[in-house]
Amino acid sequence: MLIDTCIWSLALRGKTPRDKAITAKLTAVINAGSAQLIGPIRQELLSGYSDRNQFLKLKAQLEHFPEESVVGEDYIAAAEFSNHCRINGVQGSHTDFLICAVAARLEVEIFTTDKDFERYALHLPIDLYGN
Fold first, then answer.
1. N or C terminus of the chain: which is more exposed, having fewer CB within 10 Å?
2. 0.85 exceeded by the pTM?
3. Among residues 69, 84, 6, 2, which one has the least CA distance to residue 35?
4. What are phi and psi of 128, to 5 degrees?
C-alpha cells in the first residue's frame, strides 16, 4: 500500500479523534508490512521540518520503510493520467499523478485522506484504501 503524505503527517502531528483513528489504521498497515513509500513523498514529509533535529529524527524514522523505485515509465504514465483527468475536468498536482502512476504499476492501494484522489479514481486505474 502506498501511503500518501497526508497520512504520514496526520500520524506525526494529528491530535483529533479522527487523526488517531487514521493513525491506528496506518499502524496496522505498518505492522502488516504493507506500508510503501516513494521518494517524492519522503521529500514532501522532510520538507515540512525546518528544525534540523526534528528533520534528522524524522529522516531516521522513515529509513525503516523501504522506498519503492520510481521508474521512467511512471513519469510517462503520470503525464498521461494528468492529461486524461484534465480532459475530464479534473486537475491535480504532478506529485499526485506520480503517486497514481506508481500505485497503478505496482497494483497497490493508495492510503490517503486527500479528496482529490477520489476524483482521480473516477478516471484512473487506481484503488484507494478503504473505498
1. C
2. yes
3. 2
4. -105, 140
Task: Round to whole Å and give the CA distance between 121 and 100.
Answer: 9
Query: H/E/C letters for each residue in 5-50?
Result: HHHHHHHHHCCCHHHHHHHHHHHHHHHCCCCEEEHHHHHHHHHCCC
C-alpha 115/C-alpha 117 separation (Å) is 5
**95-130 pLDDT, tens digit each:** 999 999 999 999 999 999 999 999 999 999 999 997
User: Domains plus CATH for the chain?
Assistant: 2-128 (3.40.50.1010)
CB 34 within 8 A of CB 71: no
Determine the 3-state secondary structure of 73 from DSSP. Answer: helix
